[in-house]
Amino acid sequence: KDKSPLPWLFAMALIATGLFAGLGMLYVSSHNYPGGHAMSELHRLAQPSDAGIKPVVHVDNLAAISGVSRFLEHNDRFVYSKEEHLTDEQLGKFDYLINERPHVGEQFEKIGAVAGLDRVSVRKRAILMRPALFVYYNKKKNSQAGGKQ
Asked: What is the pTM of this model?
């Protein structure tokens, strides 16, 4: 008796559908962690001084919960802080910021921006992104210390 190939084809179609759906969700979720991308951007853009002084980086709440972890703090040329509830004046003590605010203050220069997942549009068949985190350099503090670190 010949068996019908339909059950086998159906099973293979289900496996392929599950695989593609899983890969699609993996791709979407990779855009949901802008903190990790912002930390990488900071390491790429920042130039620590040769004087042995480690720049101090403030990581805000959104960055801390969206990808910044001890695993990314592998660059021992920086000191990282995750202090919470700081005023703009208190942020002035940091050399760099990874912050969700599009504007922090006059003493900070925006040197990088990282997009994060906004939503998935089924109708447009697209992943919609929005600016999520910004990397700032404290130009006032560092101009007093002798230039950009």
From this structure: 0.78
